[in-house]
Structure formats: C-alpha cells, structure tokens
Amino acid sequence: MPPTRDLLDFYTNAPLLELGAEADRVRQRLHPNNTVTYIVDRNINYTNVCVADCGFCAFYRRPKDAEGWTLSYEQIGAKIDEAKALGGVQILMQGGHNPYIPFEWYLDLLRYIKTHHPIHVHGFSPSEVDFWAKLYRMDARDVIRELQKAGLDSIPGGGGEILVQRVRDEVAKKKAGADRWLEIMEIAHQEGMKTSVTMMYGIGETLAERLEHLERVREVQARTGGFTAFICWPLQPENTPRMSHMVKTDAVDYLRTVAISRIALQNVPNIQSSWVTMGVKVGQTALRFGCNDFGSLMIEENVVSAANTTHRTTIAEMERLIHDAGFKSARRRQDYSIVAPVAAAVAVAAA
Ligand code: SF4
C-alpha cells in the first residue's frame, strides 16, 4: 500500500486487484512457504435455547419453545467419537445463552470430555462467558479460570460481529458489548489461553466501522499476542428474525474486506478463508487476497452418517482446491502446528 494512503481511503477506493496484491504481499511475508493450512474439526452446538435475541440469528429458540433442545453429555461424547474416527482434532463447541443450565453443567461437561473423549476443546465465546458471569454473579476472570481448569483449551471468536457499539445496539443489544467482548478476550489471553477473532459484516455498519473493528482487534493483539487467527464472513440474511430484508453482500465485498483485514491486522498471524459461506471458488480466490488458511473441514451430521468414503472425498476435494489455487496443503491443529499427512490419518480412521 502506498505509504501516503490511509486505510479507509485504500479500502474504499483502491482497485480490487491492487488491494489483493497488497494483501498477498503481506501474506507472503508472514507465510513465505507457499503452504495453505486447514483443520478437520466438528462444530457442536450444545443448546439452541437462547435469550439474546440477536436480529441476525436463525438458529436459536426462546426458552419454553417446543423446538428448543440441549444435548446430553452422552450425545456430545458420541459426536466427538465420530469426529475423531474421521480424523477430527478438535471440537468447536458453542451454544445459546441458556438461562436454565447451571455453571457446574459446563464444568462437568468439560471434565467428562477430557476423561472419556479427550480432544482439543475450542469453545465458549466471549458472549457466553459474559452471560455466565452475569447469570452466576461471577467475575469473568473466574469463569474463564474455572473453565480452563475443567479442560477448556481455547476460545473461539464467536459473537464478535462488528465491535462497534452503535452497530451492536442495533442488532445484538442484549449480548456482550464491544468493550466487554474485547475485555473478555484480553482476560483469556492473560490467563494463558489462545483465541480466534471474527468479524461478521454486512449488518448495517459502514466501511469505517469495519476498520474500527479491525483497529480494536489490533490494539488488543499488540498488548497480548493471544489471537491466533482472524476470520470474517458476511451476514447470511435468509431466515433471520429481523434482518431477512437486508441485501446479502457480494464476493467483491468479501475479497476487499478480507484483503484489508490482512493489511490492517499484520500482528495477527493467520487469516482464514471462509469458503463455507462464500463458496469454494471465492474461497480459493481469497487465498490470493491475504488468506493463508482454508479454515475448517467441518464434519457435519450428513457426512458422519455417510461412509468414510464421503469424508475422504471431502478431504481430497479440500486439498485439491488448495493445490489448484497454487499452494501446498497441510493439515493443522488449533495452534497451527502441522499434523500427519492426510492420507496416513485417513487410513488410520478407516482401519
Ligand atoms: S447469542 Fe445471538 S447468535 Fe448466539 S444463539 Fe443466541 S441469538 Fe443466536
């Protein structure tokens, strides 16, 4: 980026390919080995009961709704076993803000997982931590310490949306505010935990507010170094309670946003491509717009119920997409350390 140009001007006015080229230069400097990583994990939502009423959420049900559910420990354990059999190295575990679950349930769940189904638990977003701190009248630091002691390994960046209070007041008023969300991340980092950080855009914010979000993340990272990765994706307005009228942002907006994120967040090591929301072609293109990670090959219910073949094909496809984009592929863990080559791991899982 020319030194005279400020970020907002660059984001707003630079030609798409100029933005991409600058982001690609940053990626190459930070990741000179031409490798794109990915992770095999499973997303487990332990409850859909929630009182936060986010305007963009099509997932939750209010308490007492007949369609509300909370998984049992055994159901969660079975999902972990299925994921591990298919080569999964972590679970991403998040849920609604359910006022009927006692804190001990979460601690016992973590102990249960670590005893009977050991795996890396990447779970419980800052919004959940904040909700519990209020509900159980605890200090957020104590909530994190207790979770960590019980087995929580790292914290996902869920619920970040846009970290500008004006925007949050419009779409997620009942959830942790911008300051609080970042405060909880900072506490987690101080307690020795690594976390990821996200941005969901296209919810009524300006480009300047997206940049403010990035700037606030960069400031926390400068103090703690605790963010391992940044992931952004656009609002999916379909079926949401209050945002189905919003126009879905397009691929160009995504590529511009991911590129400016790479340029603005040079102290966050990894940027993930969100092919799950943008489709594989845009996901591949994003690898030339600053992304060095292809995110997660999430093991979903339909994949798990199918034969291992389905999973092998999916992994093969994931690797092919990375190779076709001109990179070497490598499977990673949450901390971005590399695991055994896929062929060997799948052979073990299939045995
Ligand atoms: S906190 Fe918001 S996004 Fe999360 S489950 Fe509840 S309503 Fe949905």
Percent helix range: 40-55%
Small-molecule binders: iron/sulfur cluster
The best one-word shape is globular
CATH architecture level-2 label: Alpha-Beta Barrel
Q: Kindly identify the CATH topology.
A: TIM Barrel
Largest sheet: 5 strands, parallel
The number of distinct β-strands equals 9
Weakly predicted, low-confidence segments: 301-313, 343-351
Mean pLDDT, nearest integer? 91
Number of helices: 15
Strand percentage lies at 5-15%
Give the termini distance in whole angstroms.
Answer: 51 Å
Task: Write the element-wise H/E pattern from the N-terminal end onward.
Answer: HHEHEHEHHEHHEHEHEHHEHHEH
Question: Which CATH class applies here?
Answer: Alpha Beta
Number of domains: 1
* CATH superfamily label: Aldolase class I
Question: Nutshell version of this structure?
Answer:
This protein is α/β, with parallel strands linked by helices.
Describe the structure.
This protein is of the alpha/beta class and 351 residues long. The chain has a single domain (40-306), classed as TIM Barrel (Alpha-Beta Barrel). 47% of the residues lie in helices and 15% in strands. Helix 2 (16-30) crosses helix 10 (251-264), helix 5 packs across helix 6 and helix 8 (178-190) runs parallel beside helix 9 (207-224). It is globular and about 50 Å long. The site of iron/sulfur cluster has 11 residues, from loops.
